[in-house]
């Protein structure tokens, strides 16, 4: 048992397990409904990466902020976004997280500390950095968690944001979700370094690479970085090594990788891993796990049904908040 | 009354807004101790300190990007992009982020952001430090575009922009920093509402629409034409988006002829949009085709004779007016 597990109560560990299942179940529901053709647009799922969402967001203050990636449903759910609003947005409903004006990868809610997800890779980094500047100016000891993928890590705006945060010691934690692929390009073909975390050295703040499928390990490094940021000691870059089980988007034929590779990573399932750990600690039984799964499935199903029955916007609602001229 | 140049008027507007609202802060390259590349922010760093007047690295995506983030959190950043040409290196923040987040978030996010940028040709700065890219910005719903041509307007519009809850870009013609004479501004502070045009000179034969540096040249041309018995009305839209169509159309109803002047290249320029509006909404009042006086479709040359040839001047505006009058 690590020191951190000692800090986490049994209840908290079970809650983390439940949240990972919730994220997995939500996204599997998305995949199923998308496959039916009832969910328009583009859907990017994080199945296999749940330990990052739970490990980093769990333990944040309510008034802390996150800027998730386009594969960010998990982070939103853990930060408290109602699944009904998420499903409703993805179904184009008026009641959606953005009233149907956003989409899967623009959802957010400021009162829950969730910046709208950004569709332009790299661009949320300077924006989140500005939020951290505002937090520092206000002296509220809030922290902003800014996520990006391995593919995005090569964009110039990421460099500009990190450098800016470094010189002002801003309360921000940069989290690189390295799932090995930027659409079809393997990370090792896109960067000449093994660990993206190494780049932190160039900005003068710590960079840590962590097993992104180990939720406790992710939680541990994330909490340390959050504490550091809250104290005014500046940013940290955390690289979480993981793998996305599904395609870049639903419908991606994934011709760029082998089935064998996918199967190997499925063996490292973060949920299965936590389950075994909790059972080893005597906190969880097979029976309890089944019960949690059942509850979670019901919760997701109810949220979906409510969203499904919600009304569509009127076509001319498109003009509301438009720019009169 | 106070006597201020174009640059001094902008500086006073910034000073007063910094004093008025602690949520307002300035950031940009060399705007602090150095006082700005052109000297606009001179003295503000000394007065307000480096948290309110922040020097930044050469990092436009961070300058505008962090401003978007801080604006979401309720601050009122006023970033300076040293040359309008550099907007392209932060164009994503200008085009995809600041103007879209309010809509995408269904109104939850407000972006009270004012980007100031020095634009325009005439200082022998070559093709990448002389452009006037207002048309790129006007094409983006959600972004308000201001382009003052006088010290009075620059002062009042900048203050209004800073108080506005939406992103605004203010184009400041860099030649006006240096060549504008002193103007009389009231001692009491004032704002000019965004989206209000201004008739700078009344006339009855032809309407000339001009803004920025071209305003003074249009007024000069009007003066010359007056000597030949041609009465020119000069209308300055001041805010290009949202546009005060009414003032321009009312002027056309009186004169029945229109010439649009801008210093950006003609093709795809703002003049095309203005001409389309007049043709769509006031066609019956037109007695002649709408004229446009603009720069040629080339990058901006450096050498003085070539740059002077490139930039529309009083003579070209005079010719443009004569053409629509058939004289």
Give an overview of the whole structure.
The complex is a heterodimer of chains A (325) and B (327). With 325 residues, chain A is α/β, with parallel strands linked by helices. Chain A has 13 helices and 7 strands. In chain A, strand 6, helix 10 and strand 7 form a beta-alpha-beta unit. Chain A starts with a helix and ends in a 16-residue tail after the last helix. In chain A, 53% of the residues are buried. The mean pLDDT of chain A is 96. Chain B has 327 residues and is of the alpha/beta class. Chain B contains 13 helices and 14 strands. In chain B, the strands form 3 sheets. In chain B, strands 3-2-4-5-7-6-12 form a 7-stranded mixed β-sheet, sandwiched between helices. The termini of chain B are far apart. The mean pLDDT of chain B is 97. Chains A and B meet through helix 6 and helix 7 of A and helix 3, helix 4 and helix 5 of B.
Which features would summarize this protein structure in a list?
heterodimer; A: alpha/beta; 5-stranded parallel beta sheet; two-stranded antiparallel ribbon; 13 helices; 10% strand; globular; B: 327 residues; 7-stranded mixed beta sheet; 5-stranded mixed beta sheet
């Amino acid at each position: 048992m690590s020191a951190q597990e000692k800090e986490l109560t049994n209840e908290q560990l079970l809650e983390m397990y439940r949240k990972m299942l919730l994220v997995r179940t939500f996204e599997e529901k998305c995949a199923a409904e998308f496959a039916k053709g009832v969910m328009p647009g583009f859907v990017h799922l994080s199945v296999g990466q749940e330990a990052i969402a739970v490990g980093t967001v769990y333990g944040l203050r309510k008034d802390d902020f996150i800027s998730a990636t386009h594969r960010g449903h998990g982070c939103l759910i853990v930060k408290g976004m109602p699944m009904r609003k998420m499903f409703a947005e993805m179904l184009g409903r008026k009641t959606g997280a953005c009233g149907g004006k956003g989409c899967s990868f623009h959802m957010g809610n400021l009162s829950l500390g969730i910046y709208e997800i950004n569709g332009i890779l790299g661009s949320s980094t300077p924006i989140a950095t500005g939020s951290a500047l505002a937090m520092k100016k206000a002296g509220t000891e809030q922290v902003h968690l800014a996520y990006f993928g391995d593919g995005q890590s090569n964009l110039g705006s990421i460099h500009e944001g990190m450098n800016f945060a470094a010189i002002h010691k801003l309360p921000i934690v940069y989290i690189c979700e390295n799932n090995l692929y930027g659409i079809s390009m393997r990370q090792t073909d896109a960067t000449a370094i093994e660990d993206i975390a190494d780049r932190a050295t160039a900005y003068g703040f710590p960079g840590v690479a962590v097993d992104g499928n180990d939720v406790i390990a992710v939680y541990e490094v994330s909490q340390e970085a959050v504490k550091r940021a809250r104290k005014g000691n500046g940013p940290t870059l955390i690289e979480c090594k993981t793998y996305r089980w599904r395609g870049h988007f639903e419908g991606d034929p994934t011709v760029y990788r082998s089935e064998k590779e996918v199967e190997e990573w499925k063996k490292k399932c973060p949920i299965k891993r936590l389950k075994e750990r909790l059972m080893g600690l005597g906190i969880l039984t097979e029976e309890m796990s089944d019960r949690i799964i059942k509850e979670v499935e019901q919760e997701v199903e109810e949220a979906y049904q409510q969203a499904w029955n919600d009304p569509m916007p009127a076509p001319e609602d498109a003009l509301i908040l438009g720019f009169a001229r | 009354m106070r006597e201020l140049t174009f640059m001094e008027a902008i500086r006073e507007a910034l000073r007063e807004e910094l004093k008025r609202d602690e949520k307002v802060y300035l950031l940009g390259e060399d705007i602090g101790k150095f006082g700005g590349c052109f000297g606009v922010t001179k003295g503000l760093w000394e007065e307000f300190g480096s948290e309110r007047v922040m020097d930044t690295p050469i990092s436009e995506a961070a300058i505008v990007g962090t401003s978007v983030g801080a604006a979401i959190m309720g601050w009122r950043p006023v970033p300076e992009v040293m040359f309008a040409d550099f907007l392209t290196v932060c164009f994503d923040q200008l085009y995809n982020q600041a103007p879209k987040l309010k809509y995408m978030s269904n109104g939850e996010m407000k972006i009270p952001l004012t980007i100031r940028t020095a634009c325009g040709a005439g200082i022998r700065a070559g093709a990448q430090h002389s452009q006037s890219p207002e048309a790129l910005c006007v094409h983006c719903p959600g972004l308000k575009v201001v382009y003052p041509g006088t010290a009075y307007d620059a002062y009042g519009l900048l203050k209004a922009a800073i108080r506005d809850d939406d992103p605004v870009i203010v184009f400041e013609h860099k030649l006006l920093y240096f060549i504008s004479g002193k103007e009389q501004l009231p001692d009491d502070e004032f704002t000019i509402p965004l989206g209000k045009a201004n008739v700078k000179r009344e006339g009855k034969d032809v309407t000339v629409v001009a803004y920025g540096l071209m305003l003074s040249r249009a007024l000069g041309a009007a003066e010359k034409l007056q000597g030949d018995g041609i009465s020119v009305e000069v209308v300055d839209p001041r805010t290009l988006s949202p546009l005060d169509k009414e003032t321009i159309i009312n002027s056309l109803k009186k004169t029945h002829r229109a010439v649009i002047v801008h210093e950006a290249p003609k093709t795809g320029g703002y003049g095309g949009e203005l001409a389309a509006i007049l043709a769509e909404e006031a066609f019956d009042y037109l007695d002649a085709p709408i004229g446009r006086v603009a720069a040629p479709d080339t990058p901006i040359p450096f050498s003085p004779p070539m740059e002077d040839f490139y930039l529309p001047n009083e003579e070209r505006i005079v010719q443009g007016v004569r053409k629509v009058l058939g004289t």
